[in-house]
């Protein structure tokens, strides 16, 4: 949905979308047919660093630079592999490491390898005088906002993503690189990730993908230099660490 709205909001510029299995990404393939000259789809698995490096090399060779990087990956549950822990007794080493690998390590490695390509400029991403890195986090990753507990692996991995992104934002600022890093909470969105856990979500708080993406893109469009390293909810309000 982010890819679709980015392609449709402007009639110029290029978008590169990544996923583990491009041949099975029906939605992206439909967009590729509609925007054959403006959309590229690359294979990328966050748990395999070489696929990140290969994708970055392809982007560098074809486009030279990127002005908007969105890390929209995340894992909450996998049948028979990973489930949100409702109690400490259900915490498993494998679950903690898998969630951390995908939710925190992967996005930061993407930024690491994309760093040399992040440049300001016009296009489908941003026309600001700085590049933007937006990592999709979650409100449950906030320590200050945590009053319910549980979901140990998911919470901790998103908290780790927050800290790593904050670190990166400080480093970019120190080096005077024109790159702004922000964290975004999309709300509870009607996706495969949230579907098993929607039973107790009020109807008015379960957002469509279209609505959530529109809100998040609006935040990116209005990002200022002073927002570097901040954590925003879908409605633009800052979330405590």
UniProtKB/TrEMBL annotation:
Pfam families, sorted: adh_short
UniProt cross-references to InterPro entries, sorted A to Z: Fungal_SecMetab_SDRs (IPR051468), NAD(P)-bd_dom_sf (IPR036291), SDR_fam (IPR002347)
Domain of life: Eukaryota
Name the UniProt record assigns to this protein: Uncharacterized protein
Organism of origin: Solanum stoloniferum
